[in-house]
Amino acid sequence: MAYRPEPDRDSREWWERIARHEFAVQRCDICGTTRFPARAFCPACRSEAWHWQDVEPEGRVESWIVNHQAFVPGRRQPYVVVMVRLAAVPGCLVYGNWHGERPPEPGERVRASFDRIDETLTLVNWTPAGSLDPHPHQRTSFR
Amino acid sequence: MTAIAGVGYTPFTKDSGVSTLTLACRAVLAALEDAGLTADDVDGLATHRVGDSAPPTLVGPALGLTDLAWHLDQFGGGSVSHAVVGQAALAVAAGLAETVVCYRAINARSEFRMGGTGRGVPASPEVQYQAPYGYVAPPQQYAMYARAHMLKYGTKAEHFGHLAVTQRANAAKNPRALMRTPITLDDYLASRWIAEPFRLLDCCLETDGACAVVVTTAERARSLRRPPVLISAAAWGGGTSHLSAPDADPTVTAAAALAPRLYAQAGLGPEDVDVAEIYDCFTYSVIVQLEDYGFCAKGEGGPYVASGATALDGPLPVNTHGGFLSEGYVHGVNHIAEAVSQLRGDAGDRQVPGAEVALSTAQPGYILPATSALILRRS
Ligand SMILES: [Zn+2]
Questions:
Q1: In terms of DSSP bridges, do strands B229-238 and B370-378 run parallel, antiparallel, or are they unpaired?
Q2: Sign of torsion over alpha carbons B356, B87, B114, A3
Q3: ipTM of the shown complex
Q4: Span A38-79, pLDDT tens digits
Q5: What is the pLDDT of residue A97?
Q6: Interior/surface letters B295-330, b for 16+ CB within 10 angstroms, e for the rest
Q7: Using an 8 Å Cβ cutoff, are B98 and B219 in contact?
Q8: Peptide bond into B364 cis (omega under 30)
Q9: A141 CA to chain B: closest CA distance, Å?
Q10: Do A64 and B128 touch (CB under 8 A)?
Q11: Rounded to the nearest whole angstrom, what is the distance from the C-alpha of residue A44 to the centroid of ligand 1?
Q12: Phi first, then psi: what are they for B277, rounded to 5°?
């Protein structure tokens, strides 16, 4: 892959959890607000007290693009990037590649697929919730 | 009260063949010449950049300015282009400097292309959640938000196309513009995909060039060569990151929060604006800002453009120079300079008759979570 994520001191544990197929967000101990990506402070009450909370890795497609250029080296075009609004954290949008044989549909329900790249890295991509494939990384994604 | 006393350009090209330092010096000197000043009059320099250009600490000494009273090397992309002029106006109003030249020099085609090509992926804690998926460049990010707007409000490709066609028609009247051959809606629809829903003609040019403006007191500007253009309002501010965790609606930009502050400062409203030079890194950027600056209702930006409202002979001429889409991409400063031209009445074939109030805006906050804007007035 052309770009490998570089976890920082706020995000390292999130990536480690993803490698164990655990999808977590932070929840504020004081006011209960959930947030992603990982940050020390709750933007709602400015508390530094928080814990990880596992949430269902589900959401809805809010937008997507079909890339026809090699925006990063080594990508076969066209490829699809989806923007997903998390069901558990409606204030959060997350991104990933699309694992579907057809383009996404507006508002479509999707579920994360944990795609293992190597021993230390797993990425989160998105699959139509209606047709969850247990081995998504073994097939080609939608173009 | 502060004013813009001069504007200067280098030619816009696809390969300048010179350094950004050289481009910066040429634009600064051209703006001073326009104002009827020389480099000896300058006591302040300001720029914005993303590690891709010459800072004031190089440009000053290169022009023999070894005792600048004030300078600003603002990190940032197009979000801060107009904030730089606002900061210069503050420095002048506070008496820290009398003559500040704000410039942007860029070899965005031949050296440092935006969005990664030609340099590494930008260092931001949010990039790690996007770049692994091949999601790194501004056309991708704007295309993502454009589709969200299309899905929510029914904005159509033809609306984006109409904007591209209108701005090209303006560029045809601008000798400085890189792209002057008129296009049709069919040309737009036939242009190749970049990142659906964006086609080639949704995207700004990648340009080598520089542009500069001279900021001084209104009183001093009145004694100089050109009619002064008053800085009636300058506002800038930050908002929610749209990269990973927007709390809000991704079809609303930071401009929606900034606009009321901007208009209040000027004592004017959108109905008073005669001409608008709106940051157009992509077609959608203009459509969403027309909404967020109050020229039409939320969601109506597409139909508003398609109605012809933003054409040169419409009620709100927009990007009279052709914008980034057709004149060239100098990261916001060429929009400010064009507003100045319109208010001085020297915009030639593309002049909006009797223009007295201009709005000029920066990148509305999708990539860096901040934006900035100016309202300028004829003196
Ligand atoms: Zn809290």
A1: antiparallel
A2: negative
A3: 0.92
A4: 889 998 999 999 999 999 999 999 999 999 998 888 888 899
A5: 97
A6: bbebbbbbbbbbeebbbbeeebbbbbbbbbbbbbbb
A7: no
A8: no
A9: 12
A10: no
A11: 5
A12: -110, 100
Residue B69 neighbours by CB distance under 10 Å? 15
Q: Which amino acid is at A25?
A: V
Q: What is the pTM of this model?
A: 0.94
Contact B216, B2 (CB under 8 A): yes
Distance from the first to the final alpha carbon of chain B: 11
Task: Count how many residues are written for chain A.
Answer: 143
Distance from C-alpha of B25 to C-alpha of B105, rounded to nearest angstrom: 9
Q: What are the tokens at B321? A: 């120079």
User: Measured between alpha carbons, how far is B145 from B232 in angstroms, rounded to an integer?
Assistant: 31
Tell whether A93 is within 8 A of chain B (Cβ). Answer: yes
CB-count burial class (<10 Å; 0-12, 13-18, 19+) for B152: middle
- B134: distance to nearest CA of chain A, Å? 6
Question: Token digits for B122?
Answer: 């930008």
Q: Which amino acid is at B32?
A: L
Q: What is the pLDDT of residue B238?
A: 79
> Which pLDDT band, with edges at 50, 70 and 90, does A136 fall under?
very low
- Picking from A109, A105, A92, A93, the residue whose alpha carbon sits closest to that of residue A142 is A105
Contact list in B for residue A96 (CB cut-off 8 A) is 133
Contact B244 A2 (CB under 8 A): no
Q: Are B361 and B263 in contact (CB under 8 A)?
A: no
Q: Has residue A131 got a pLDDT over 70?
A: no
Strands (E), chain B: 2-9, 44-49, 70-75, 100-107, 193-196, 198-199, 208-217, 229-238, 275-277, 357-361, 370-378
Write the single-letter amino acid at A130: G
Residues in contact with A91: Cβ distance below 8 Å, sequence separation at least 6, in sequence order: A34, A35, B245, B246, B247
Q: Could you tell me whether strands A24-28 and B229-238 are parallel, antiparallel, or unpaired per DSSP bridges?
A: unpaired
For residue B71, count other CB atoms closer than 10 A to its CB. 20
pLDDT digits (tens, 9 = 90+) for B67-125: 999 999 999 889 999 999 999 999 999 999 999 999 999 999 999 887 654 455 556 77
Q: Which residue has the tokens 């990010």?
A: B141
Sign (positive or negative) of CA dihedral B191, B195, B197, B202: negative
